[in-house]
Structure formats: structure tokens, C-alpha cells
């Protein structure tokens, strides 16, 4: 009933093994997930990372949904990780989320990554700044 309509979903992500962040979001996904099925048809996606994952809001006891807590939004194309990058994607994902090793193999898990095209940082009450992808 919502075919063709955008919607959000929560997916585990990693941008590299611990102590080797790359800035490239990797995902361990299954084609049985409607989100992934949609991305395989139309790979355009956005990803919002809340500052709640950092220290500022927690340290200052600020609600993560408060506008003072920054949000970084990445937009781009979701693509299947090519064979030459799969080992790195495995290290990236499994080092940060070891539980995924135990996920049922029958779900046909594979790796995707986002090729980032645009970055926006919303840092205060609706104010957004574009950030160069190279940064």
C-alpha cells in the first residue's frame, strides 16, 4: 500500500573497523527486508545520524531530539559492496556489531554501502550547512 512512498528504517551501520573509520557507511542487509528490496530498485537514500550518538547531548543532559543536538544527514546512492571490498566491509561491521555473526544465514545477508553525494549538518534550530563530501 505504500509502494513508491519514502519511509524510514533503522539499519546497523559501520564506517570501518574500530580505530579505522572511513566515513563511508557500510550496511549488512537482507533482500527479505522491504527497505533493501526498495533500495535494489531505487538506490537513492538519506541517512541521518543524531548527535545523541556523541557526547555533547548526553554530557549536558539534553534530549537527543532537542534542536541543540546536531544531526548529520548524508544522501546518496546505496550500492552493493563490490567483491574486492567485502572483506573490509566484514571487518567494519563485525568489529562494531559482533552479534551479526549469529544472524540466521538463511536470510541471504550481503553488504551495501552508501556512495555519499551530499552532506548537511543541522546544528541549531533548523539551521543547516552544506559540507563538502571531500571533508
From TrEMBL:
Its main location: secreted. SUPFAM superfamilies: FMN-binding split barrel. It is found in: Secreted. Residues 2-135 form the CREG-like beta-barrel domain. Keywords: Glycoprotein, Secreted, Signal. The keyword Signal applies. Pfam families: CREG_beta-barrel. GO terms for cellular component: cytoplasm; endomembrane system; extracellular space. InterPro entries: CREG_beta-barrel (IPR055343), Split_barrel_FMN-bd (IPR012349). The keyword Metal-binding does not apply. It comes from the Eukaryota. Belongs to the CREG family. This is CREG2 protein. It comes from Pandion haliaetus (Osprey). The gene is Creg2.
Amino acid at each position: 500500500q505504500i509502494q513508491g512512498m519514502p519511509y524510514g528504517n533503522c539499519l546497523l551501520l559501520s564506517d570501518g573497523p574500530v580505530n579505522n573509520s572511513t566515513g563511508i557507511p557500510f550496511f549488512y542487509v537482507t533482500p527479505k527486508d522491504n527497505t533493501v528490496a526498495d533500495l535494489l530498485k531505487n538506490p537513492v537514500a538519506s541517512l541521518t545520524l543524531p548527535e545523541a550518538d556523541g557526547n555533547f547531548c548526553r554530557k549536558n543532559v539534553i534530549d537527543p531530539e532537542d534542536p541543540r543536538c546536531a544531526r548529520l544527514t548524508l544522501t546518496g546512492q546505496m550500492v552493493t559492496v563490490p567483491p574486492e571490498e567485502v572483506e573490509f566491509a566484514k571487518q567494519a561491521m563485525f568489529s562494531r556489531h559482533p552479534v551479526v555473526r549469529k544472524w540466521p544465514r538463511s536470510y541471504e545477508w550481503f553488504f551495501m554501502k552508501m556512495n555519499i553525494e551530499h552532506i548537511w549538518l543541522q546544528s541549531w534550530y533548523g539551521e543547516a550547512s552544506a559540507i563538502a563530501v571531500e571533508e
